[in-house]
Amino acid sequence: MSELVTFGESMLRLSPPGHERLENATELEVHAGGSESNVAIAAQRLGTESTWTSKVPETPLGRRVVGELRQHGIETDVVWSHRGRQGTYYLEQGGSPRGTNVIYDRADSAITTASASEFNLGLIQNAQVFFTSGITPALSESLRDATANLLKAARQGGTTTAVDFNYRRKLWSPEEAESTMTRLFPGIDILIIAARDARTVLGFEGDPRQLAHKLGSQYNFTTVVVTRGDEGAIGWHDSVVHDQAAYETDTADAIGTGDAFTGAFIARRLDGDDVPTALEYAAATAALKRTIPGDAALVTAEEVEEVVAEQGEDISR
User: Domain 4-10+35-83+113-316 is of which CATH architecture?
Assistant: First the structure.
């Protein structure tokens, strides 16, 4: 059985090459990508047996997504559907000041009709960690119930639950996200959240260290990780706060950086590392991901080890 099971939608990502505009693109690059499958891939690459579970349309596009994810080494356990469509998103990369633009086309996708009863609860309850993200309940009312019920089933089976808050303003409002996510909090052991989301959506105040401590204390999480972009991350565990700087990197594609961080953090915790060490490996994996086109962190454990070792040498000088 897999050590890690993740649940959520993977889309087809369509993007023009380089920094071209969508409106005049003559070709599009295609990748499969979604928060939960990205996390599974990153963890798998670091040695954690991982499975992605979802509801997928029985169409050529649905099979395209599942086939690509399998090529990345993870197991897939999907409910094939004859209703709904394959979600997609369009990504237009651009430097400053234009920035990167994401256009979602995922309304009425197959997963939006999913219920917890459709999935293999035994798979989840026999895993060591069950992971999903705040993107999933943002997609439909049905998925809000499914997410809550799957978290509950995981907890009942003794499985540790981990959630990346992962707020997306193009999917729902801060008020909707706050109402839904705080109802899920009692079923979550490990919370990963961006400092900006803790402030904007949850209304928390303070620096990232204060945010981590307040979240952990108020909601009784086992572990809280507060990410802070180019400044790294803060980890709170057993009422102790740990600081992790970001590693230097040349960015080819920033999409999936947070997922790479989360997948690596979970993988190293499953491997027995303490929180500070897991944060080091997470930061290294995130830095490597930014050098790789596409959503997935196609790294090796050896590459991550090298980045961690080099960073350690730089700090000791």
Answer: 3-Layer(aba) Sandwich (3.40)
